[in-house]
Amino acid sequence: MKHCRTALSFHRGGTHTTTPTQGLPSAHQNDGPSRKRAMSTLNQHNNMCHSNLIFIILFIFNDYVTGDISTSLALSKLNSGGSFFAGPYLDGTGVSNVTTQIGTHAYLPCKVKQLGNKSVSWVRVRDDHILTVDRMTFIADERFQSFYVENSGVWTLQIKYVQARDAGIYECQVSTEPKISARVHLHVVVPRTELIGDSDRYVKAGSAVILRCVVRGALEPPSYIIWYHGTQQIFTENRRGWKTQLERGAPDLDGDIHSTIGSLIIESTRKKDSGNYSCSPSNSPPITVSLHVINGESSASAVTSSAGSLFDVYQWLSRGTSIFYCSIGHLLCYSFWLSTLS
Predict the structure, then answer these.
(1) GO cellular-component terms in the record (predicted)?
(2) Is residue 291 in a domain?
(3) What does residue 36 show for φ and ψ, rounded to 5 degrees?
């Protein structure tokens, strides 16, 4: 920076302007060719100095507007290596928002240049808890860890198996005086599992039924959905007429987030198929539906059939002392007297 003073010097309270020949060797001030070469060199030097000055002004202005980095830290002088920073500084191109899904791993980056012998700490802002200092962890929760990629300048806070309570702001701090820091906001997406249809399903023995669940609000679709009958996992290859389906990419109300629909299909139900069925996705909580299989000639404990049946939707109506069973598709009703029903 001191070499720029030959062509351009400035100080607090005013400016000082030099003449075009100031800084030239006196023996060449009146020598035509030598003077031209020297003037050309001086003009190039002036242009470089002006570029440096413009960069400095723009940097200070950007710092003032964004407030991300302390000016006193990053801009003390131009060193001999050509860097505009005398000590550690934060790379302003880093990520300020990270979105991850519950149960997955989150990675919060912090890029520090020219760190030298300073330390990098990660702090959870909501309770000012120091999580890590350099590669050391200062919290009992082993899910938190800081690691550094050599020659990258990036210090990353890793949070394993993210929980909903991990959402919030985390601060990367460099132990300079004054301290410099950058904040990263962690957003945690929590998928939800819902039933398609009622939580109690009634079907007549021998009819087909489809039990469906849907996973909504997930950044990534579940890798699998397991169905359980009670506590026993269902293996469809061992059950004739049973099969499962997984439909990914169904548009959701959230727009860019997609749903996944899981289906359990039973082509011909039997009385022993009654019970609780659980839909258990890999990335969201399970949900349960109760299936009631009715023997038509001996029981009418249910009054409505499964809306997810492959066949007609049935409706039970109670009138007086009898119950009418109606097949909407065929407009045909059968009357069962209450005295004949168990």
Answers:
(1) neuron projection membrane
(2) yes
(3) -65, -45
